[in-house]
Amino acid sequence: MIKRTLYFGNPSYLSLRNGQLVLRLPEVSKNDALPDTFKREAERTIPIEDIGVVVLDHSQITVTHGLLEALLENNCAVITCDKSRMPVGLMLPLCGNTTQNERFRYQLAASQPLKKQLWQQTVQQKIANQAAVLESRGIVAKNMRAWVGEVRSGDADNMEARAAAYYWSVLFPELGYFRRDREGDPPNNLLNYGYAIVRAVVARALVVSGLLPTCGIHHHNRYNAYCLADDIMEPYRPYVDREVCNILTSGLDYTILTTELKSKLLSLPTVEVSVQGRRSPLMVAVAQTTASLYKCFSGELRKIVYPEM
Known about the structure:
Layout: E1 4-8, E2 12-17, E3 20-24, H1 26-29, H2 36-42, E4 44-47, E5 51-56, E6 61-63, H3 65-73, E7 77-81, E8 87-91, H4 100-108, H5 112-136, H6 142-148, H7 159-170, H8 188-208, H9 227-232, H10 237-250, H11 259-266, E9 272-275, E10 278-281, H12 282-298
Parallel strand pairs: 1-5, 2-6, 5-7
Antiparallel strand pairs: 2-3, 3-4, 7-8, 9-10
């Protein structure tokens, strides 16, 4: 089942009733002149089990504890945004799998050689997907295709960085010059937003697969609570890049992250991707990836299942 991504960008009351998320607008709820029947008809309800990601993007949104509890019990990721309307926080369930303790042990006991092999596979697929994005734009990527085969265990030669340097220098020819920087000029704002959405989807899937998002196979920043999510999302980043390329070529003003642009980026979890020769929504593909990662930790598999562009 494809889970829905819900975005709330206006003042609103969010609560729980009969297993449903209930959306009410403050101006309707506080207007005593309006009849109760009108107020009820103005409500919108959404089944909790249909929701995968919730984005809260306004300082005047009120959420009840009962709703938060229900969302987390159903393995939903809740993203909060700051005053600049960029994702700043992520809430996930503490327990998302019935055999979580056993899965934690497999993950924590993973050997360094295994983690290096898994990182090698991750970097190879990331570079291959980046090459596919360039080729779809008519940009030469033979060098990147060659670099895929040169990635060694643990990416000892840092081919990821070499590929990234070339990739970002040619990805947006219409801009003349572009530097990938979180605090940099647009379209960095679009990339940041899209990556935050995909990161939340990956973190949610890791919890559902009974894994610790904190303990990465490569990333190990002591201040990062989602190192494993940052590892596993790498081959999915090019899907964000491709969507940003589409926005630029559409002629839309990308300098300001409008509701229209957010809507396009929030659709990323439902974008069709190819996994093992089959088409599926990105959110479903991520679940396959995290499930295969657990099997790599447990010794059932030797390769992570990643999407191919």
